[in-house]
Write a structure and sequence with these properties.
Blueprint: H1 2-27, H2 30-44, H3 58-73, H4 77-87, H5 92-104, H6 108-119, H7 123-126, H8 139-146, E1 165-168, E2 183-190, E3 196-199, H9 201-204, E4 209-214, E5 218-228, E6 233-238, E7 244-246, E8 260-265, H10 269-272, E9 277-285, E10 295-298, E11 310-313, E12 318-327, E13 339-343, H11 344-351, E14 368-370, H12 385-392, E15 396-402
Antiparallel strand pairs: 1-12, 2-3, 2-15, 3-6, 4-5, 4-15, 5-6, 7-14, 8-9, 8-11, 9-10, 10-13, 11-12, 12-13
Helix pairs in contact: 2-4, 3-4, 4-5, 5-6, 6-8
């Protein structure tokens, strides 16, 4: 028996330990430390740090986890972030530490990103080798995430100039009559067959009741599942399945300025009626107000009621969610057709925070999904605007919000 154990030690255990030590050194050596030294204030504060060593750095993290917990308990946020980035170990706990460090340094947008990344890596803390360090995941992550303050990006007003404002498309014409005094209207679109629907947060904010009317005048109730005020997004669960839905673009970094896009929505239903309306245009800029990288600037015309509608590429993929337009005058010039859509990256991050029974499973190959007959071949890339409109309008709904 002793001979067998000796053989196992020399053949399996010792080589495995050597492999882990070498791998850990390779993954958590000079490059991560250099990144901490040179880019903590930039990469870390903008939420772009990604931990890239999920397995090989396990031992390295175990050796330093007690020190990390001590830094956390003593609120030494800069040192905590530097330690986590140096080890480069990817887990829910390490991303949680990054989020807590960012929150402690009042980098709330970065904290939100890191907390969401922690929610995507829960298997590390739920496994038989528990590395939770006394935390209750995912509960503690969601508590910190929900407690972050909503911080809207606003361009700075220069002396002597009147600042242009980005206003939700829902509030641009307050003098227009409404169907009811205490209701609000917007657009939403389905993203899976189980009835998950996306819209804007400002559409459903302070809602007492939410209903969705789809093509054919079918009306169903809906409830709010998760929201993100920073990206102006909300995910609803409609009390009905969806035979038609849209797939999300997984790599919006490939979207180019000048790309043609379109949306289908329900603008000014009290004046224009409840038939959906289609508008199209171009990606004017890859950033929003004050170079905000979360948004596209688009030339797609929008009006009150378009808020929450899908921004769809010619391939039939959602690249963004119609959100706002620039209003008021700056230097005496009134903005013309300067509109914005939040990128689908923000939406994908939000969908990762959905509770287990509503978990969203994205697909890589499917584009426009319309029941069982949806095509996913390269022919979808050549969709005419008429065909694309017919497909997209089957996935959108009129969102009606009762305020009291």
């Amino acid at each position: 028996m002793r001979i067998v154990l000796s053989i196992l030690r020399y053949v399996f255990i010792y080589p495995a330990l050597i492999f882990l030590l070498v791998s850990c050194a390779l993954h958590s050596g000079t490059p991560p430390v250099q990144r901490v030294a040179d880019g903590l204030s930039k990469e870390f504060n903008t939420g772009t740090v990604r931990l890239e060593c999920p397995t090989a750095c396990t031992l390295g993290w175990r050796l330093k986890s007690r020190h990390a917990k001590s830094l956390y308990e003593n609120k030494l946020w800069t040192d905590l972030a530097a330690l986590v980035m140096e080890v480069n170990y990817s887990s829910d706990l390490t991303y949680f530490y990054l989020g807590r460090a960012a929150e402690g340094m009042k980098q709330y947008e970065a904290a939100q990103t890191y907390y969401r990344l922690a929610l995507t890596d829960l298997q590390r803390c739920d496994g038989w080798m528990n590395d939770c360090d006394g935390f209750d995941f995912p509960k503690d992550i969601r508590v910190r995430l929900s407690g972050l303050p909503a911080k809207k990006n606003q361009p700075h007003e220069e002396a002597g100039e009147k600042k242009s404002r980005v206003e939700p498309a829902e509030t641009l014409f307050p003098s227009l009559p409404k169907l009811h005094a205490h209701t609000r209207h917007g657009t939403g679109f389905f993203i899976n067959a189980q009835g998950l629907m996306v819209t804007n947060w400002h559409v459903v904010e302070n809602a007492k009741a939410i209903s969705v009317t789809t093509k054919g005048q079918t009306r169903n109730s809906a409830v709010l599942l998760v929201s993100d005020a920073r990206c102006d997004l909300a995910v609803l669960k409609v009390a009905a399945s969806a035979p038609n839905w849209l797939s999300l673009h997984r790599t919006v970094k490939r979207v180019r300025r000048g790309s043609e896009v379109m949306t289908v929505g329900f603008p000014q239903v009290s004046v224009q009626g409840q038939e959906s309306k289609v508008t199209n245009g171009l990606i004017s800029s890859l950033s929003g107000v004050a170079d905000d990288a979360k948004f596209f600037q688009i030339s797609v015309p929008i009006q009150p009621g378009n808020s929450g509608g899908p921004l769809v590429s010619r391939e039939g993929l959602v690249v963004g969610v119609v959100t706002a337009k620039l209003s008021s005058k700056a230097n005496g010039v009134s903005p013309e057709n300067v509109n914005y859509a939040v990128k689908s990256d923000c939406l994908l991050d939000l969908l990762r925070t959905l509770p287990g029974k509503h978990r969203y499973e994205s697909t890589k190959s499917k584009k426009v999904k319309v029941g069982k007959k949806a095509k996913t071949s390269r022919q979808d890339k050549d969709l005419s605007m008429v065909d694309l409109t017919e497909r997209v309008e089957k996935t959108v709904g009129l969102v009606t919000v009762t305020l009291d």
